Amino acid sequence: MEYQYYMPTKVIAGENCIVKNSSVFSSLGTKAILVTGTGSAKKNGSLQDVLEALESVGIESILFDKIMSNPTIDIVYEGAELAKKEKADFVIAIGGGSPMDAGKAIALLASQDIKEEELFSGNYENKVFPMAFVPTTAGTGSEVTPYSILTNDKAQTKTSIASPLLFPKVAFLDARYMMGLGQATTINTAIDALSHAVEGMLSVRATAMSDFYAVESTKILAECLRELRVSSESVISLELRERLLHASMLAGIVISHTGTTAVHSMGYSLTYFKDIDHGRANGLLLPSFLEFIKESKPERVEQILSLMNCEDTRAFRSLLEDLLGKKETITEEEIKTYSSIAIKAKNIANGIVIAKEEDLQKIFRESLN
Amino acid sequence: MEYQYYMPTKVIAGENCIVKNSSVFSSLGTKAILVTGTGSAKKNGSLQDVLEALESVGIESILFDKIMSNPTIDIVYEGAELAKKEKADFVIAIGGGSPMDAGKAIALLASQDIKEEELFSGNYENKVFPMAFVPTTAGTGSEVTPYSILTNDKAQTKTSIASPLLFPKVAFLDARYMMGLGQATTINTAIDALSHAVEGMLSVRATAMSDFYAVESTKILAECLRELRVSSESVISLELRERLLHASMLAGIVISHTGTTAVHSMGYSLTYFKDIDHGRANGLLLPSFLEFIKESKPERVEQILSLMNCEDTRAFRSLLEDLLGKKETITEEEIKTYSSIAIKAKNIANGIVIAKEEDLQKIFRESLN
Asked: What is the C-alpha separation between A336 and B218, in angstroms, rounded?
């Protein structure tokens, strides 16, 4: 039994956990930069709770609410400049994957000078602003990973910064902030979490310890996804959202240890070129990826299908198709372009079966036509 | 779903993991104090591996090999003095619970001045020597807890120091060091781990997250204990020992969050006054404690019995009796003394059913006569 396990983030979960635990912020610094998207943190109550908590412990803050979906390198440098100018000394990121990913890069860039061409190198000094994260979707798991995924226009895809420095000090999980999320976003983000758990089990870096988290997460998500399939938007309960947020966090711990696989590399093209939501992109690709793996490693795929309560890969495909609805289409030319980009990604080599470029083409073809 | 989760120790598991990961030591300091018992670390190869790893990265060390079973307050002050005198700046503790518990106190006392009467107060400055831990038994889980349990002669029991400062930076889990452990020690320590997992489930502080670890640990230990029941000493395989070490670590994560319950408070008297091994003491008491809890909370006990693959509490008692063999006896006077001490312990209030002094007496009486 060989493994390494490391996840130093303190996770605080529960209704109103930010205000109840406001003293935590005092241990992080004296002035916070609040990193958010343009709208949702204001609407769902999370920003207000953070401001209330900060006020109660007398900590100042400055708002940086410019993070777009799939954040760019420019925006994180802009945030870091603001943090320095305003003499902030810690980061609070509030939102889905995008503000959290941007928050990590800002925490790094505000604490040390890193040139743009060195940003993806991993060669950093051992310092970073402390971070507190407030996920407002249940999917990315970024609150417990050492990754920051940024849009990399030079490589025409998304690329990750990975460093143990990027683990937040604290993650606050309060599912109330998700109550206003629509059915489609809830499903897409849940499928993102599922993709993390499943890809973690299909990674060469999987261990007894990562499987422990992946198995639990997959089981919870299998139940949640079936409930989402039959529910209409108005009846997604707080209780269901809490399970989704918990499972998404567990799946984040999985990929912290295993990384992701070809599904993510391929999905990034669908997001970069066709603006397909990240979780949805993974969900579109996952059934054919499972079938591809099954040819060489049937036992592992059977284990995953059993956790999903699916008789076979067809049942798994059918569950995801019900959730994702009408699929986007893709041309042969796009298939070739995207496969040629995805094959260069680091996480291709991470699979228990290593996909060749023609395998990626076949998966794209089966998944979107 | 409300919980807090925090376990910042990096766990590195596998054969020869210390030498393979010697670079880890360079991140901890420049001179180590090695805290061990009087003999076993030298015999089982663990000390030699640590010295080899330190030499390979050019780190000096000083050996403090005086830790007795159930370490005293005097010995940890002596160790801290040596660390200061020798200008060590980090601690490597190697051994069972005693050297690890002592190592934590030494790491704390070497970094700041704490008077003996303040030692159990929890009021410390925010500094401690970094620690690397090498468990050589599978039971205490101390490598992933924020507790140091010391013999407290004033209170005539064992008392714990608890502080997040006491989490080691790194834990190395290599089951090879356990290959020479006898059947009785292997069983006693495994039962200590089981007691942690089960008491964690019987704690008012149990959460979805602590249960996640407790359920996995209990399931693994239930299998391992059955294998230990039928195996003779010579056939305890490395593979079985690896599962025990893994389960013990998981159970350590449980009590880091839940604390222990009356079983531990009561067991400390059996250890303090009658020199009964800590794990064995817990094992002697656990069946009657389960029966006591079952009167008020039958569902929770049923859940534990099901994880243990035991039909009822009698089957659970029978499994433990097979493992523990002939029991020690106890007089009525001892029962009264020990109960009056145990009832004062903090962890009594931790149970999902709070035991009164007469409940403790009844449990002692049933367990040891």
From this structure: 50
User: How far apart are the C-alpha atoms of B220 and B172, rounded to whole Å?
Assistant: 20
Instruction: Establish whether this prediction's ipTM goes over 0.90.
Output: yes
Please tell me which residue of chain B has the smallest CA distance to A17: B2
Tell me the shortest Cα–Cα distance from A160 to chain B, in angstroms: 22
| DSSP result, A317-354 | HHHHHHHH-SPP---HHHHHHHHHHHTTSGGGGGBSSP
Chain B environment of A208 (Cβ under 8 Å): 246
Cα A170 from Cα B168, distance rounded (Å): 19
Q: What is the pLDDT of residues A186-229, one digit of tens each?
A: 999 999 999 999 999 999 999 999 999 999 999 999 999 999 99
Name the residue among B12, B208, B242 with its Cβ closest to that of A4: B12
Amino acid at A328: E
pLDDT grade for A234, boundaries at 50, 70 and 90: low
Q: Is A238 on the interface with B (CB under 8 A)?
A: no
Whether chain B has a CB inside 8 Å of the CB on A246: the answer is yes
pTM for the whole structure: 0.95
Contact status, residue B320 vs residue B283, Cβ threshold 8 Å: yes
| pLDDT for residue A76 is more than 80 | yes
Measure in Å the smallest separation between the Cα of B274 and chain A Cα atoms: 37
Return the pLDDT at B154: 79
Residues A199/A200/A201/A202 CA torsion (nearest 10 deg): 50
Which of A154-163, A319-328, B240-249, B341-350 comes out lowest in average pLDDT?
A154-163
* Sign of the torsion angle spanned by Cα atoms B184, B185, B186, B192: positive
Interface probe for B, chosen from A1, A3, A23 (most Cβ of B below 10 Å), is A1
CB A152 within 8 Å of CB A158: yes
- Closest by alpha carbon to A254, among A208, A222, A294? A208
Phi, psi of B323 (to 5 degrees): -75, -35
Of A10, A175, A216, the CB nearest to B6: A10
Q: How far apart are CA B279 and CA A188, in angstroms?
A: 48
